[in-house]
Amino acid sequence: MSTVADKLAKKSSRKTSAKQVRLRLVYVDFWSAVKLSFLAAVALAIVTVVSFFLVYLIVQATGLIGTVDEFFQSFSDGGVSITAFIGLPQVMAFAAIVAILNLVVVTVLGAVIAGIYNLAVKVTGGLLVGFTSN
Q1: How far apart are CA 18 and CA 11, in angstroms?
Q2: The model's pTM
Q3: Furthest CA-CA distance within the chain
Q4: Mean pLDDT of 122-129
């Protein structure tokens, strides 16, 4: 009685000749690089906004904002309140600004890197990449 696992073990024990191919990467499509870097930047923007939100919640839950507020009020005789400047709307607005700036910078950086690679290929001949059929 042979089971499916035995058949698969026998099948995998056979050595098949793996065909290896060596290819040279000589061109990166500019628009593909822009689209891919834009998608990576969108993911980074989402992570940025969520992490700002979570850090704010942790700082608020630990009471660190209240402690810092008391510290600054002791120096300014109660004239300056940190809680007036640091609230959830202000933190999320700052997170959105940082996320949008990162979105623009990462997208442009992806395009610039693709352009630099395409120029460098003319000098170096490209990147040699090996592939196998397994």
Answers
A1: 15
A2: 0.72
A3: 88
A4: 89
Task: Give, rounded to a whole angstrom, the gap between the first and last alpha carbons of the chain.
Answer: 30
Measured between alpha carbons, how far is 111 from 80 in angstroms, rounded to an integer? Answer: 45
Phi then psi for residue 20, to 5 deg, are -105, 135
Mind listing the pLDDT tens digit for each residue in 44-86? 999 999 999 999 999 999 988 888 888 888 877 767 778 778 8
pLDDT of 117 reads 94
Helix, strand, coil share of the chain (percent; to 5): 70, 10, 20
Cβ–Cβ under 8 Å, residues 125 and 26: yes
Both tokens of 60, joined, read 């608020």
Query: How far is Cα 56 from Cα 73, in angstroms, rounded to an integer?
Result: 21
